[in-house]
Amino acid sequence: MNKFCIFVFAAIFAVGFSHPMYRKEFDKIINSNDCLKTCMSNLTIFDEEISLMKNPNLQRYFGKIDKICGIIEFTRKCIDKCGIESNPFSLESLNVVCLPESREKINEVTKCLNTKPANIYSTCAGYCGDYDKISESVHQLTQKISENELKNATKVNEIMEKTNEACGIYKCFTQCNVETVKNYCGKNVGNELQQILQNVFDAQFHDLQKLNLLETMPKTVPSECNYMFDPSIIFGYQQPQQQSDISNPQNLQIELLLKQLKLIDRQNELINRENQKIDLEMAVLSQKFEKKFESPYLFH
């Protein structure tokens, strides 16, 4: 297997199949290597998305966390034996949820939710849209498109528009998941969940840095998928910037201007985020209010 294919194999996992061309290339790489095909067989049997970057159904995901981490570990070790230099199952973003400190936080969240009559996915789907449905639509369209049709802008645009929609729903879901857990389990548990998710976004950023994909990502993924390369998008956390050369006054002026522009963008994002949070809190309160007046014991 040549170095380009090895790079693509890891890179595709990092970018999250954001373009149908990547998915097709990934399938070609797998099918061309019997060792990889054997190692990846568990994924085709397991009916769940193993990356938290592509799975907002947290109750379902956390309920299968032992099996998910087992599959990640097995596949990572298996691919290592294939002689692949760049193993996608060694990516930090895929493994961070299986670290002991992450598992401890996941257990806290799960322990609380198991005592509550809550279906968070249904609650957030009603507010954000059905991620599973849109994601499946993207998958089906990508499976159907041929290599020749990848040159057809209309066919590709249909997939990219659906992908953009899925990413928008994912961002809404991520905030909704945290706010709903805070509502059911308290602020501390909700903050633990937020930290788990933020760690995944930060790890994704580090993976892209190592793969030299940070500059490529904004040009290849739909606009709503910006959280895939900017870990500050959803929760507003600022990733430390690399130190730049400020010995030149012109460089300093440019840097200050860029920071000002970024600050304006961030302020707009924060305003939008706060508006979404208010809408979400109102939706949760409305549900509580409706349930209260639907209770058969209300007038007894």
Keywords summarizing the entry:
mainly alpha; signal; Chondroitin proteoglycan 4 domain-containing protein; 14 helices; 300 residues; disordered N terminus; disordered C terminus
Please sum up the structure shown.
It is built from 14 helices and no strands. It has 300 residues and is mainly α. The protein has one domain.
Describe the protein's architecture and organization.
This protein is an all-alpha fold and 300 residues long. It has one domain (3-233). It is 69% helix and 0% strand. It contains 14 helices and no strands. The chain has helices at 3-15, 20-31, 34-39, 41-45, 58-63, 65-80, 92-95, 100-113, 120-128, 131-144, 153-185, 187-210, 217-220, 249-294. Helix 1 (3-15) packs across helix 2, helix 8 runs antiparallel to helix 12 and helix 11 (153-185) packs across helix 14 (249-294). The model is unreliable at 1-8, 238-257 and 295-300 (pLDDT under 50).
